Automatic annotation (TrEMBL):
<dbReference type="InterPro" id="IPR036388">
    <property type="entry name" value="WH-like_DNA-bd_sf"/>
</dbReference>
<comment type="similarity">
    <text>Belongs to the LysR transcriptional regulatory family.</text>
</comment>
<dbReference type="InterPro" id="IPR036390">
    <property type="entry name" value="WH_DNA-bd_sf"/>
</dbReference>
<keyword id="KW-0238">DNA-binding</keyword>
<feature type="domain" description="HTH lysR-type">
    <location>
        <begin position="5"/>
        <end position="65"/>
    </location>
</feature>
<dbReference type="InterPro" id="IPR000847">
    <property type="entry name" value="LysR_HTH_N"/>
</dbReference>
<dbReference type="Pfam" id="PF03466">
    <property type="entry name" value="LysR_substrate"/>
</dbReference>
<protein>
    <submittedName>
        <fullName>LysR family transcriptional regulator</fullName>
    </submittedName>
</protein>
<dbReference type="InterPro" id="IPR005119">
    <property type="entry name" value="LysR_subst-bd"/>
</dbReference>
<keyword id="KW-0804">Transcription</keyword>
<keyword id="KW-0805">Transcription regulation</keyword>
<dbReference type="InterPro" id="IPR050950">
    <property type="entry name" value="HTH-type_LysR_regulators"/>
</dbReference>
<dbReference type="Pfam" id="PF00126">
    <property type="entry name" value="HTH_1"/>
</dbReference>
Length: 300
């Protein structure tokens, strides 16, 4: 059976060796000299060999045996390895290092997360972050495969995700996006029937209307564009109009406008999605707590 080497005993051994005496080691360890002697004897018993020669009464200096000389660098190596791991774990628990992996829908990724992450990492400069930007379905797959610590997405049918916890944080309304020169742009709000005579472009968020009468418009649509940059370009060019949640609306655009859809009135809830009964890494838990603290939560 291998000996159980305690780090404290190894430290005592190294200190006695380096300081050339039990008394000096005891002072460094804030222990009594008999306590240090007992610690060393117990270590020698575990190793099966003496580490120090019998002390010279005149000099009281502790001299290493050949076995002790051989063991000294090994002991230092064990202590250094222990201290590196202990320090890494301490930093990790304080989310000052480690790896945070998150995925988010583009709207929150571009509108909210940059400021959140910048503030969070101001106290965690050594933290590594892997960030994935995709639609809700893709985000959920990354959560399920544990590619990320958690995701930020919308659950289209929450009852179908019994394996996940959902913490709602943001919400936005669905509206019609069209050029400012479009005939619908001057409306304060719109009913889905007013869209029948216009070319509609389907996109990844159109599913938000699937349980409403308005979804029939998109079921008949000839066009689907998943990429937001391409979708914006096509709408700006006058190719058609679409519906988007407010957070997904490209607010930097000077040519497009957002008109709320009042009938049906659809509100999208976005939040943290994580697997049930699975512990997160300290950085992930810290960022989740930080996000909830800054953003709050919606009532379920």
């Amino acid at each position: 059976m291998l000996p159980d080497l305690k780090i404290t005993q190894l430290r005592h051994f190294v200190w006695v060796s380096e300081l050339k005496g039990f008394h000096a080691a005891a002072e460094k360890a804030h222990r009594t000299q008999p306590a240090i002697s007992l610690s060393i004897r117990d270590l020698e018993t575990k190793l099966g060999e003496s580490l120090f020669e019998k002390r010279n009464v005149k000099t009281a200096k502790a001299e290493l045996t050949p076995f002790g000389i051989y063991f000294l660098p090994k002991a230092k190596e064990l202590i250094a390895h222990h201290d590196r791991i202990a320090e890494d774990m301490r930093l990790l628990s304080e989310h000052k290092t480690g790896h945070l992996r998150i995925a988010s829908v583009p709207s929150i990724a571009s509108r909210v997360l940059p400021e959140l992450l910048e503030e969070f990492m101001s106290h965690s400069s050594d933290l590594h972050v892997s960030f994935f930007d995709d639609n809700s379905a893709a985000v959920l797959k990354m959560v399920e495969s544990q590619k990320v610590d958690f995701g930020i997405a919308h659950l289209f049918h929450e009852e179908e995700h019994s394996d996940k916890d959902f913490i709602p944080i943001w919400q936005d309304q669905i509206g019609v996006v069209c050029p400012k020169s479009h005939s619908l742009a001057q409306k304060e709000s719109l009913c889905w029937k007013e869209l029948k005579s216009h070319r509609l472009i389907n996109n990844g968020t159109s599913r938000l209307l699937e349980d409403t009468d308005a979804y029939s418009l998109f079921e008949l649509s000839q066009f689907y564009i998943s990429n937001m940059i391409s979708l914006t370009a096509m709408i700006e060019a006058g190719f058609g109009i679409t519906t988007l949640p407010w957070y997904a609306f490209p607010q930097e655009s000077k040519t497009l406008c957002f008109v709320p859809l009042s009938e049906p009135q659809v509100v999208r809830r976005l939040g943290i999605v994580l697997l049930k009964n699975k512990s997160m890494t300290p950085p992930a838990q810290a960022f989740l707590d930080f996000t909830i603290q800054r953003m709050g939560t919606l009532n379920k």
